[in-house]
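This follows on from our talk about sequence and fold. Go ahead and set the record down below:
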Amino acid sequence: MGLQFSVSSPDLDECLSPLLNSCHQLANCINTIGSYRCECKIGYQGNGQKCNDIDECVISPFFCHPLFDCRNTDGSYICACPEGFEGNGDDCYGMLFSLYG
C-alpha cells in the first residue's frame, strides 16, 4: 500500500458575494463543499431563493394577551395596546383601570 494523494481545487465560497449565489436578500447563505444552500431568516418562510414574511398574528393569536392587538411587522410582530389605552404592549393603561399582559 502506497501513499495516496488527492488533487482538488479549493472550495469556492459562493456566499461571499450575492453575484455567486441565488439566495434571497432575506435568506442566509450557507456554504457547503462544492455548493451552497439558502435558508430564510427567522420570521420568514420559503425555499431560500424566495422568502416571505410570516404573519405571526395569523398563525397564533396567543403571542399577545387576548385584550391586546397583535400587529405584524417585517420578520416579527408587536403587541400593542388597544385604542384608548397607552403602554408598551405588555402593560396597557386607560383612564379608569389598567390591563396587564
User: Anything to note?
Assistant: Residues 13 and 66 are 47 Å apart (CA to CA). The domain at 14-53 is CATH 2.10.25.10 (Laminin).
